[in-house]
Predict the structure.
Amino acid sequence: MKLIPMRFMGYEWHHNPREITFECEKSVTERLVPYDVSQIQQTGRKNMVIKGTGELYGEDCMEQFERLFELFRRGGAGVLAIENTEPVFAVFKSVKILGAPKENVLTYGFVFREVMEEKESGKNTFHTARDGENLWDISYKYNIVIDELVRLNPQIKRPDIVAEGEVIRLC
């Protein structure tokens, strides 16, 4: 089985991170009322934090890190696609080298922060792919399960590669 690489804003990891954690919280307040009673109120979900660590391998491991760092410096929000999870609209919060680089191996850590926004509504039946978009981006944008998009678009052989201008069937 071939794992699909993690992707963010056109950057594709050569090797998926070794460890990824998803931190999810809700805002909860407790109000004390007379006679030893308290009320709990949920006031919404906080933005998810996605953290991870991994290794970059090969003689070009430092160049791989520099490309990752350039993505971080560029900034902006985009779709973070990770194998076996729903895509998340996120910003790249931090990236760092962990420990001293070894020969042909560099260990790094990263943090992404979810950006909660409204997704496309309405009954669009087609989408024209923009430069750098893939099926995960489109899946997130229109709130369609990735497996359904793949089924509806058998002409697309790899969901991570979609040509600019290609028309994607949504339903």
Remarks:
- The mean pLDDT is 86.
- The helical segments are 61-74, 135-142, 146-152.
